[in-house]
Amino acid sequence: FFFEGGNPDLDPEEGTAFSVGAVVRPSFVQGLFISLDYFNLEISNLIRSPDPEALLNGTESAGSVTRDANNVPTLDVRLNNGGERTVRGFDISVSQTIETPATGTFNFYTNGVVQTTNELVEGPVVTDFLGNFARSQPIPKFRGIFGMNWTDDVVDFAANVDYSTGISEVFMGETFDRDAWLSVDMQLGYDFSKYQKTSWLTDGLRAYIGVENLLNGALPFFISGNNGWDRSIGDLRGRYVYGGVRKSF
Predict the structure, then answer these.
(1) Strands (DSSP E) along the chain, which ranges?
(2) By C-alpha distance, which of 185, 169, 175 is closest to 229?
(3) What does each C-alpha distance from 112 to 56, 145, 209 come to in angstroms?
(4) What is the C-alpha to C-alpha distance for residues 46 and 86, in angstroms, rounded to an integer?
(5) 3-state DSSP of 112-155
(6) Other residues' Cβ atoms within 10 Å of the Cβ of residue 150
(7) Residue (of 15, 118, 13, 125) closest to 62 by Cα position
(8) pLDDT 10s per residue in the chain (249 long)?
(9) Cα(134)–Cα(120) distance, rounded to whole angstroms?
(10) Whole-angstrom distance, CA of residue 222 vs CA of residue 179
């Protein structure tokens, strides 16, 4: 049996956040942009629902367990205060824009997050989220997007690679390693309104076609996950092609 819901005796969470960063735009490389940020987030007195499994195992610092005459447990998993969460890491961003009179404008970019610490401390129990699937949260050590855009004002093309490092999951005492996730996406567009000859029909008209998850990579599957697959990093449908026409008036 469970007791669930709110708690009028909750205390507010307390947290501290610190970040420092740098931005570089070197004058000797036109169009280059580099930024690096360090972040440190610490939250204490967390408001959360106690984990039922941890409560039964005696490793949960919040909630309570009572048993009747037949030794049937009743778990109090109402919202409670308890635990400290620490997240540290780096945000990285690099982009390079190249403009050419003959072939158009190119933009190359990468954006990524590297986490160095992501843990929850609940009394004597420390849950390491970094690179692991814990409490229904898959937290990769690194996730980044690498891509490029090109346009000559009439035709445009975009491609990017979404990459996430692998995750480990412990289920019933056995460790399962999930492979890294990689997805390649592309889109090609044509702007009829910027063609040399336009009319009321082509003015503001753009057509496009694209493909998501070109390599048809399968989403990581987690046995203990609520939804099974990690839908936070991609689409469950796998590879698919799309297209459309947009008209602005």
Answers:
(1) 2-3, 14-24, 32-44, 47-48, 64-67, 73-76, 80-81, 84-100, 104-122, 125-128, 133-134, 137-138, 142-151, 155-164, 167-171, 174-178, 181-191, 205-212, 240-247
(2) 169
(3) 39, 6, 27
(4) 11
(5) EEEEEEEEEEECCEEEECCCEEECCEECCCEEEEEEEEEECCCE
(6) 16
(7) 125
(8) 777 778 888 889 899 999 999 999 998 999 999 999 999 999 998 888 777 777 777 767 677 788 888 888 888 888 888 789 999 999 999 999 999 988 999 999 999 999 999 998 877 778 899 999 877 778 899 999 999 999 998 899 999 999 999 999 888 778 889 899 999 999 999 998 876 666 777 788 889 999 999 999 888 888 877 677 777 777 788 899 999 999 888
(9) 10
(10) 11
- Token pair listed for 16: 């501290």
| Antiparallel, parallel or unpaired: β 14-24 and 32-44 | antiparallel
Token digits for 91?
């945000």
Residue 114 corresponds to which tokens in the numbers above? 């590297």
37: CB partners within 8 A, 6+ apart = 19, 20, 21, 22, 90, 91
Side chain identity, residue 63: G
